[in-house]
Batch of 2 targets.
Target 1
Amino acid sequence: MSENKRPTSEILTRVVDGNNNDTITVEEIKNSLNERGFGLLMAVSSLPLCIPFPAPPGYTTFFSIPLFIFSIQMILGMDSPWLPKWVGNKRIKRTKLAKFIEKAVPLLRKIEKLLKPRMINSNIEGWEKLIGVSSFIFSISIAIPIPLTNLPPGYGILIMSLGLLSKDGLTILIGLIVGIMGVILTIFVLSFGAEIIESWLSSEEEETVMLILQHFIV
C-alpha cells in the first residue's frame, strides 16, 4: 500500500514505531509524515489536546503553538508546512507520544471508517484556507487555560484535519461545527463563569445563615 493511501491511524503509529530514541523532535515527526503535509501535522498537533486528563499549567498553551503556526501557513496558501527551528527542535518523550497515539488510534479508526471523498472537487486550496482560518480561531480558544474547554476545539481541528486527508468536505464541516461549539463554550465560561460561581457561593452562604437562624429559633 502506498503512503498516500495508508490510513492516518497507521501512519501515526509508525511515527513512534519507526523511532527507537527516547525522545522525538517535532521536526522528526514532520519528516516521518512524508507527503501528508498540513492534514497530518494538524492532526498530530491536536491529538494531545483531545485526551481528557488533568493537565499541568501551560500544557494547552504549549500545544496550541504548532496549531497557530500551521493555520497561518494554510491561510497564506503555502504548499507545504514550514517549522521555525526552535519549534522543530522541541523534543517529546517517545513514551508519552506513544501513549497519546495509543489512546487516540481506536477513535481515529472509527472515524476513518466513515471517511470518503465528497463535496471536494478541485478547489482543495479553498478548503485548506477555511480550515486555516477556523483552526486559528480554535487555537486561541485552546490556548486559554480553562480546564476541559480545549477538548471541543481540539476535536474540531482533528476532525477537520482527517477530513482534509480524505478530501471529505462533510467531515470538514462537522469538525467546523464541533470547534465552533468549543469556542462558544469558552466564551460562555469567560463571560459568565465567575458570575455563576459567585451566585452559587452567595446562595450557599444564604442557606448557611438560614440554617443557623433556624437552629437558634428552635
Note: Residues 3-190 form one domain.
Target 2
Amino acid sequence: MQWRLRSKIAKYSATRLSNNLSGEEIARLMLKEHQINDVKIMSVEGQLTDHYNPLDKTVNLSHDVFYGRNAAAAAIAAHECGHAVQHANAYSMLQFRSAIVPVLSVTSRWMPWLLVGGVLMIAITPLFLIVGVILFGLTTLFSFITLPVEFDASRRALKWIKERNIVNTEEYAMSADALRWAAMTYVIAAISSLATLLYYVSFLGNRTNRE
C-alpha cells in the first residue's frame, strides 16, 4: 500500500499548481483563515514524514511538501493543518487519541516481549500472554481511533481548498485521490492490527481450552 501511495504522490507532484502556491504558503493561509496563530510550520527531513504535533503545536511538512507547488503538496499541507484545526476546536477523537499516546509509549516497550514470552511459557502459565494481548489490544484500539481523526482532517482539508479555490477542478481531483490513498494506509494498518490481535486471542483460547 505504501508503494501505491508513493506512486500517487509522485504522479500528482509532477504538475505545478495553477496558483503556484507552495505547501508552506497553503498551510500558512489555512491556519490564518482559521484564526490559528500559535502553530508553527516546520520543514522536516524524509518522505511522507508529514505530521501535526499537538504537544508543541507544529505542522511538520517534508521537504517536498513544504516547498512543493503541486496538488499533492497542497493536499498534504492542508491535511496536516486539518489536524491543527481539530486541535483548536477540541475535536474529541483527536483528544482521545492524544490522551492514550503516553500509555502506548510505555506499553509498546513491553508488549513484544510479553507476547513472545507468553507464547513460549503458555504451557506453564497464560498470564504473560494475557497481559501481552491486553496491551496489543490497546495498540489496535489506537489504530481504529486514528481512522476518524485522519478522515476528518482530510475532509476539512478538501473542503477548505475547494471553497478557497486553492486548486482548480482537475487539481482537486488529484488532491482528493492522494488523500484517499493516504487514508487507505491507515485502514490497512488497523485491519492488520486487528487480525494479529485475533490470532493471539485465538491462540490463547485454544491453549487454555486444552488444559
Note: The longest helix spans residues 169-210.
